[in-house]
Design brief:
Keywords: Aminoacyl-tRNA synthetase, ATP-binding, Cytoplasm, Ligase, Magnesium, Metal-binding, Nucleotide-binding, Protein biosynthesis. With about 375 residues, the protein is α+β, with helices and mostly antiparallel strands. The protein is built from 12 helices and 10 strands. Strands 1-5-6-10-9-8-7 form a 7-stranded mixed sheet, with helices on both faces. It binds phenylalanine.
């Protein structure tokens, strides 16, 4: 008969009894099954699988068992924990699927429901056009300058070398607010007929060199019709520095039309007269639609330029030395160039607007196709 196995000394550990392990497992399974939300399941998970859960504590007790009992107890606890984790994963999957299905229903949007349209405001295409043109020059270092719309006659005419008998100074062309000034009266007040008085203000106010661009509203006593409006917009540019020549003016104009109408654009100058520039020119840009190909080509007529190949933009020239002198600038040392053109006209040919009245009526049906840029 073999001797009793002295090394086997069963230790009764309460928590490792098979019934206890089963109870712990069953309680965990029941808790998971009863969890009706992911939050509740999380709580049950902490309680039944966390470091302080009965099964985790039982697992720790295994270490205290004699070697012979460890394997059996380890297997029992391991199986129970495996079953618990499996049940947890299963329930987690069920509850997540339930939540996903519910969210799909709860957060669905019925795109066919009627809704209240709240129209967003937007700036007028004339404003966006002026800003677009200004941006071309601002990116070259020009500053935006402004002046009053009710302007002294002196700024609008005298300083710009308009003689007292110039036709623009007559009542039929200009809105007079105060005046017209008599022979020895002080300068009257008019609504500015162009943005050029801002040239004078800029030269008087600023340090040289001056590089400014002035978008603004101007007034002339025209009847409102398809091609005239008594209130319209111009953009004026003035550069005064040492050594500026007509080549700088031409290069600046070419850069502007390339920026606004495309890389293959160019301008041309035709002789003209303005009292405040000498020499003066009319500036045309290549027709950006036909690029000149409609000229003498009846098979390919162009509506935009009336098959002339060029579109008239506005006036330009080298600042008249008399204007520089009137503004206290030494014409021996400084020279400059200027140009000005109408924004309404540019909007008309750029976007095929046929009637200028559409621009002043403020009907959103006109504005909307330009894009509601805010
Ligand atoms: N002020 C001129 C006009 O209204 C345009 C112009 C501006 C011409 C600058 C020359 C230089 O027609």
């Amino acid at each position: 008969m073999s001797a009793p196995n002295k090394s086997y000394d069963p230790v009764e550990v309460e928590t490792l009894k098979p019934e206890e392990i089963e109870r712990m497992r069953d309680e965990a399974l029941a808790a998971f099954a009863a969890a009706d939300s992911l939050d509740a399941l999380h709580e049950a998970k902490v309680a039944h699988t966390g470091p302080a859960s009965p099964l985790a504590l039982a697992n720790r007790e295994i270490g205290a068992l004699p070697p012979q009992a460890k394997a059996e107890a380890g297997k029992r606890v391991g199986q129970a924990r495996g079953a618990v984790n499996k049940a947890l994963g299963g329930r987690q999957g069920e509850l997540e699927a339930e939540r996903d299905a519910r969210v799909l229903v709860e957060e669905s949007v019925d795109v066919t429901l009627p809704y209240d349209r709240v129209p967003a405001g937007a700036r007028h295409p004339l404003t966006t056009m002026m800003e677009r043109v200004s941006d071309v020059f601002v990116s070259m270092g020009y500053e935006i300058a402004e002046g009053p719309e009710a302007e002294a006659e002196w700024f609008n005419f005298d300083a710009l070398n308009f003689t007292p008998d110039h036709p623009a100074r007559q009542m039929q062309d200009t809105f007079f607010v105060q005046g017209p000034a008599g022979d020895d009266a002080e300068s009257g007040v008019i609504l500015r007929t162009h943005t050029s008085p801002v040239q004078v203000r800029a030269l008087l106010d600023r340090e040289l060199p001056v590089y400014i661009v002035c978008p603004g509203r101007v007034y002339r006593t025209d009847e409102l019709d398809a091609t005239h409006t008594p209130v319209f917009h111009q953009i004026e540019l003035l550069a005064v520095d040492e050594g500026l020549t007509m080549a700088d003016l031409k290069g600046t104009l070419d850069h502007m039309v390339r920026s606004l109408f495309g890389a293959d654009m160019k301008t041309r100058l035709r002789p003209n007269y303005f009292p405040f520039t000498e020499p003066s020119a009319e500036m045309d840009m290549l027709c950006y639609v036909c690029k000149g190909e409609s000229v003498g080509n009846p098979d390919r007529p162009c509506r935009t330029c009336s098959s002339e190949g060029w579109i008239e933009l506005g006036g330009c020239g080298m600042v008249n030395p008399r204007v520089l002198t009137a503004c206290g600038v030494d014409p021996e040392k400084y020279s400059g160039f200027a140009f000005g053109f109408g924004i309404e006209r540019m909007l008309m040919f750029r976007h095929n607007v046929e009637d200028m009245r559409d621009m002043v009526e403020g009907d959103v049906r006109f504005t909307r196709p330009f894009g509601m840029e805010i």
